[in-house]
Amino acid sequence: MNKTKVIASIGPASQDEATLKALMMNGIDAVRINMSHADFDFCDDIVRKVQTLNQTLKKNVAIMVDIPGPTVRIDRVKDGCVTFKAGTTVCIHMKEITGDHTKISVNYPGLASDVKCHSIIKIDDGKIILEVIDKEPEMLICNVIQGGLVRDHKSLNVPGVPLNIPFLRDYDRQIITYAHQNHLDFLALSFVRSSEDILEVNDLLIELGNDHLGIVAKIENEKAIEDIDQIIKASDAVMVARGDLGVEIPFERLPGLQKMILRKCHIAGVVSIVATEILSSMEDEMIPTRAEVSDLANAVLDGVDAVMLSGETTTGKYPVETTMMMERIIASSEEDINYYEFVETSMRTEKQDITGNIAYSVTDCANRLKCIAIVAPTVTGYTARKISRFRPSCPIIALCPDPETARSLALHFAVQPVHVKKLDQLDKMIHVAKECVKTYIERNEGHYILTGGYPFEGVKHTNFMKVEEL
Description:
Elements: E1 5-9, H1 17-25, E2 30-34, H2 40-57, E3 62-67, E4 72-73, E5 81-84, E6 89-93, E7 103-105, H3 111-114, E8 120-123, E9 128-136, E10 139-146, E11 148-151, E12 155-157, H4 170-181, E13 186-189, H5 195-208, E14 214-219, H6 222-226, H7 228-234, E15 237-241, H8 242-248, H9 254-268, E16 271-275, H10 290-301, E17 306-309, H11 311-314, H12 319-334, H13 339-348, H14 354-368, E18 373-377, H15 382-389, E19 396-400, H16 403-408, E20 415-419, H17 426-440, E21 447-452, E22 464-469
Parallel strand pairs: 1-2, 1-17, 2-3, 3-13, 6-7, 13-14, 14-15, 15-16, 16-17, 18-19, 18-21, 19-20
Antiparallel strand pairs: 4-12, 5-11, 6-10, 8-9, 8-12, 9-10, 21-22
Helix pairs in contact: 1-2, 4-5, 5-7, 7-9, 10-12, 13-14
């Protein structure tokens, strides 16, 4: 059982039930639906399939929905794909048209006002580069510096130019309402600029009466880097979205920024996610490059909570094989994690409360005894999240009486959420813990630690740990 979690983006290559089932059977912990490319009918289909498969397979795979946020995307182009050639002139219209090799339109009418002559425009994570050579009230005239294929709805960036787009538009609010009504688990917020954007979404969730949806802040621009500490504080998870981030800032800064964000998230006890081009060569090939393997392994060694597949599972040829390869690489990399270093780092920054100290003791004891599992009955998920922050070397089996709580733990390092009936007696807790260890842990002998709150009624913190032997 791997401790680093895997998120699979769902698209044409993975939307059928057989492929979804294979992905879930081969280790994914969450599915992601990108609403920049999907519609609500597609969402309905995927949500229904995942919820059904969760029941059938007795899984707790979470569902994340990605809202577009203040991003600029090109509108529809002829036949879904056109080619821009270097040295040619292309016009960007503010009113919607069907694009071709000489013109496109965008979903943000204010682009012509915000952008100046000689500004650089990048399309599709910087694969296509344009320079603005002239402008009109409803159109930008550009020279193609670097050509390539342009597809429907690809993102458009103007590095260094602030765009006057509200963070939440009507479509974003519709998606958030949909996620609330359909009991989804995570909202991924694209192009977060500051903690104020997070708080705006949080206020909307309060209005809806939703305290379950986890907020994932996607770090994709320089503004977010400047306010990273407050963004982490306001979020449930932070995603290093290396595609658009690598367009907005010099790409050579990406490795250092990624390590910095992972470190800050770990200290704050906030879930960290790394995304974009994890195993992108596997969109067309059965074997990843050595560089991709090293990239993924380094994220695991840095203690990332989760890694996310994008094109590999949405349009790639080998979505299931890619997931299986990712699990193999993660399993091998986790053997080299310096777990003791993570425990010490966590303890130095942990609040001096009872649950925090028990979590430290449980993790330290599990590492020293080489335990095969930690079992943590939890009503809210708090105990499991606390232990996860200390990065134990063995899995944490979180016994949750509420299925929503179980899915809320899907992205936390090492946590294997299990939905069980309410545990109100110590003997019952010990019995269920032992059966779960037998079910979820491959090794059939060894020590495991049971931890929780006792007595059951009224206790508000974790206050005991018990070492058991299988």
